[in-house]
Amino acid sequence: MYVAVKGGERAIDNAHAWLAEERRGDPDVAALDIAQIREQLALAVNRVMAEGSLYDPDLAALAIKQARGDLIEAIFLIRAYRTTLPRLGLSHPIDTGAMAIDRRISATFKDVPGGQVLGPTFDYTHRLLDFALAAEGLEPPAVAEAPVAPDAVPHVAEFLDREGLIQAEVASDATPPDLTREPLNLPAGRALRLQALTRGDEGFVLGMAYSTQRGYGRNHPFVGELRIGAVAVELDIPELGFAVEIGEVTVTECETVNQFVGSKTEPPQFTRGYGLVFGQTERKAISMALVDRALRWEELGEDNVGAPAQDQEFVLYHADNIQATGFLEHIKLPHYVDFQSELELIRKLRREAAVARPEAAE
Amino acid sequence: MSEYNFAYLDEQTKRMIRRAILKGLAIPGYQVPFASREMPMPYGWGTGGVQVSAATLTPDDTFKVIDQGADDTTNAVSIRKFFEKTAGVATTERTAEATVIQTRHRIPEQELTEDQILVYQVPIPEPLRFLEPSEVETRKMHALEEYGLMHVKLYEDIARHGEIATAYAYPVKVEGRYVMDPSPIPKFDNPKLEMAAIQLFGAGREQRIYALPPYTKVVSLDFEDYPFERTRAPQDCGLCGANDSYLDEVIMDDAGRRMFVCSDTDFCRARREDGHQGAMAAAAEALT
Predict the structure, then answer these.
(1) Of B123, B247, B252, the CB nearest to A1
(2) Which residues, in sequence order, are CB contacts of B41 under 8 Å at separation 6+?
(3) Could you tell me if A157 and A208 lie in one domain?
(4) pTM (two decimals)
(5) How far does A152 lie from chain B, in Å, by closest CA?
(6) N or C end: fewer C-beta atoms under 10 angstroms in chain B?
(7) How far off is chain B from A17, nearest CA to CA, in Å?
(8) ipTM score here?
(9) Residue A111 belongs to what domain range?
(10) Do the Cβ atoms of A327 and B263 come within 8 Å?
């Protein structure tokens, strides 16, 4: 009925009130506080920080609470907040070699200087529901004190680098581009691609990486090294004339070692893929490294086999879940003007078809 | 809302957007890349239009928002409220009173003037996108004025259906140079694209702004023997009796009875206030 499309304003207000009520759930159950989410749903917080491109566990926890646990919605809240923040300056590049390590493994060497540190990982847990967790008040067993890791743990790839077995990365002091400040222009350089991947949707990047493993642009990856830990963030203070540490962030870094048989321009050697993501987010960091490597086909003189993960336009334009979910969900908005013009067109074409084939109209 | 700047965006961002708008006005129909910001509403909800409006509004402006031609559709309400809150500008539902009008999918029926700006929300700014998915390729095609593919598509429509089977987002050529997507307005609205007001098009997710300066020549693509045809439902508005406005078709009851009403609610209201009455005005009155 025509009246049904009226009253949009009241409908919105009522919908928001109902949403607030649903978000709270049963008022007899204690409300979650931000610290609980930050401490106990830390991996969700990490994902929101990584894809929201803003390192702030408390805000990420707030966003998760406000979004009723919908992480893409939470990422959206963080992005919309982040975009209003002034840029105070550019930090120095973080030094992951000086990371305070929580976890550090290499799949390419049995032992490496600095050691293999398993850290807090799900890897060797048996995925059996722990019903004891459902009971309240149970504290986990105390952890034996971890041996103190050395201050600076060398990167595994350096050992291959010394032998010249792995393709060297060229150092650059150029300010990396920022796709949150400049429109994406193609072709995109590696720094920009890495930025897009690190804030890209975990599921999308995982799917792209998985597709390379299954043969769509295969690049034979080994996890040369995966490390997780806190690194210092340093900022030049112009008034002081030197850099000071303004805080620290936890990041996950993954460097893959990939087979490479050589090409017209490069001798046989190992090549690298790189992933760096806020928080303990290793699925994402490994995926990112595989996709990064796949996107490097051109600079390494490899063939483009037409795999989706090799197509930077495809990957970069579709990795952002905020763009994707917005455009996908906008088809819920009214389209009746366009639909009306389609209705008129279909009716007209059917009339014409009926005139052309009178027997079909019977 | 003192935490946010006037009209939400910070002044640096507005300056960046204004530069893109000026470039767009200087090269009518050309898609200018701009560093679209995340807005507090989702992509697809009009973030491009909202950013263009935010960069265009001044405190003295009077703002109107329509979606599907109507001021009271949910998303139009939401965007109008956003600017009431963040810019504190006066808002109106009357087309003639507005200085800036943001629209989704329609051009108002009432002729706009030189004192007005019409801001469109654009989902896919690239008219060639569904013929060529790669942005790298389509930018090249625009640069080389290589529009053969589009004409082949229109020709294939005619070969298959006997006419050009595009009912909305009907492509136009601007000043004899750029092929442009007029946003998903029904092709009924295409002839109105030549107007006195400034027209700005914002595509947030796709990071593009383009523009039509006043009185720009805008030609809907067609062939001499298959000229462009403007279409609307062949009825009169059930409420105001207009026979020249674009109509929405409304299903009235379980039996599927239909009613046709102006999609431009302000136009319809003004006509009824002037005493025009459609065939179903009395019945609709009884329902409200």
Answers:
(1) B252
(2) B47, B50, B78, B79, B82
(3) yes
(4) 0.89
(5) 38
(6) C
(7) 15
(8) 0.83
(9) 96-121+145-319
(10) no
